[in-house]
Amino acid sequence: MATTVPGMLRVSNDVIADLAGYAALECYGVVGMALTDEEQGVARLLPIHRLRKGIGVSLDNNTIVVDLHVVLEQGVNMSSVAANLESTVKFLLDQIAELTDVKVRVHVEGMRSH
């Protein structure tokens, strides 16, 4: 039986990024997280141990904003995958880190055949 412990929970941006990245990888149609090279304008797929490089976490008027830069599987419906990503990340952050005021923005950086 779970008991409530009084106090405050602080969650770092890196932990939020890691949770969001692992949640995103579980979503249908997501190949992985991406990092865009600003100079060359090319997005590259990140290995699993560097997921947080493709995720931005910021605070805007007491709302946590999570920017996911993803590569999707070619042929999927982008709006459906983006909606699924948003709800999955919000759900996981609520369940694990008890963060309820979260905005998720999905940036599709590329498509790739799987």
Brief description of this entry?
With 114 residues, this protein is of the alpha+beta class.
CATH topology: Alpha-Beta Plaits
How many DSSP E strands? 5
Q: What is the approximate shape?
A: globular
How many H/I helical runs?
Answer: 2
Strand-and-helix sequence, N→C? HEEEEHE
- Share of residues in strands: 35-45%
Based on the coordinates given, report the CATH architecture: 2-Layer Sandwich
CATH class: Alpha Beta
Radius of gyration: 15 Å
Overall pLDDT confidence: 90
Written description of the protein model:
There is one protein chain. Helix 1 (13-25) packs across helix 2 (78-97). This protein starts with 12 loop residues before the first helix and ends with a strand. The protein is built from two helices and five strands; from the N terminus they run H-E-E-E-E-H-E. 29% of the residues lie in helices and 35% in strands. It is of the alpha+beta class and 114 residues long. Strands 1, 2, 3, 4 and 5 form a five-stranded mixed beta sheet that branches. It has a single domain (13-112), classed as Cation efflux protein, cytoplasmic domain (Alpha-Beta Plaits, 2-Layer Sandwich).
Which keywords apply here?
114 residues; alpha+beta; Alpha-Beta Plaits; 29% helix; globular
Topology:
Blueprint: H1 13-25, E1 30-37, E2 42-45, E3 55-60, E4 63-73, H2 78-97, E5 102-112
Parallel strand pairs: 4-5
Antiparallel strand pairs: 1-2, 1-4, 3-4
Helix pairs in contact: 1-2
